[in-house]
Amino acid sequence: MESHHVNDPMFQEASVTNVVNMETEEAVQLLVRHAADLQSSDLFFHSNEKSVEIAVRRLGKVQRLASVSLEQGKHLIGHIKAMA
Questions:
Q1: Nearest-5° angle of CA 26, CA 30, CA 32?
Q2: Is the pTM of the predicted complex or chain greater than 0.90?
Q3: If 0-12 CB within 10 Å is exposed, 13-18 middle and 19+ buried, where does residue 21 land?
Q4: Of 2, 42, 56, 79, which shows the fewest CB atoms inside 10 Å?
């Protein structure tokens, strides 16, 4: 798979936009790859009443990557748990 430059705004925007339209496994792969490309130390999934916020910790700061529906967020979290 081709490597993406972490400062490329097209990649960052594509990541946020495309996750919503992806199958669960593909979305998880993209999020983990993007977190690794950013050299982040953590990948977070925060559930609230209406959605799941996805963020990374990079250089000590939490940066939001995407927001997905509660339903999709449950699928993403479930997939990660199943693969652990």
A1: 115
A2: no
A3: exposed
A4: 2
CATH number, domain at 29? 3.30.450.90
- What sign has the CA pseudo-torsion 40, 43, 46, 50? positive
- Per-residue pLDDT reduced to its tens digit, 28-82: 999 999 899 989 999 999 999 999 999 999 999 999 988 999 999 999 999 999 9
Distance, in Å, from the CA atom of 31 to the CA atom of 16, rounded to the nearest integer, reads 9
Q: How far apart are CA 60 and CA 62, in angstroms?
A: 7
Q: Which residue range(s) make up the domain with 67?
A: 9-83
- Contact between 32 and 25 under an 8 Å Cβ cutoff? The reply is no
Relative to beta strand 42-47, strand 61-69 is: unpaired
**Are the C-beta atoms of residues 54 and 67 closer than 8 Å to each other?**
yes
